């Protein structure tokens, strides 16, 4: 298990697959008992410098956890600097309305695939029907092809259409530029390809990152580590 973090650290935590177990659909996740209490205790120990960094919207994170932490939602398209602060939405292009219909048409032939809408984009999920992955990637890339303001990002069993340049690394840099994060040593924990940008940003800022599946066996191990912190 990675070393416990110091009181002068800033902690960036992915949610799905890192703090909570993945589920067949995004709505089906279960928040384990004790997680929110651990997060609150660690956040207090770090002076509030604990942020949930996720592809989900911050509203969804708040609803799932039943508690408001500092957060970067939608891979950094929305930021909340501290537990009581308002959510700041980056000034980002919105996907054309027609794209949603194209995305719905792309998932329609694949029972179990689903489209998840977000403010600044949408996601084509294929966890329940893995064989749809290549076709949905092709569809996603086709949808954004004519608009360089958007890009397709690979996630776990999903293709996400989002504004280009929005990623968890940029989110970490934005949070680290301001209190209560600024000046602290950033530590990132994540499980997904989308977390690599966050880990790279923390490393570049003199910190480090840990991966579920390598440094931690599973989300339960991350939760046990948080309890010890
Ligand atoms: Mg994850």
| CATH homologous superfamily (4th level) name of the largest domain | HAD superfamily/HAD-like
Total number of strands = 11
Number of helices: 7
* Amount of helix: 25-40%
Contiguous low-pLDDT stretches (5 residues minimum) are none
Helix and strand pattern: EHEHEEEHEEHEEHEHEH
Stated plainly, the CATH topology of the largest domain is called Rossmann fold
Summarize model confidence as the mean pLDDT.
95
CATH architecture of the largest domain: 3-Layer(aba) Sandwich
> What topology, given as strand order, has the largest sheet?
5-4-3-2-1-10-11
Largest sheet: 7 strands, mixed
N- and C-termini, Cα separation: 12 Å
Taken from the alpha-carbon principal axes, the silhouette is globular
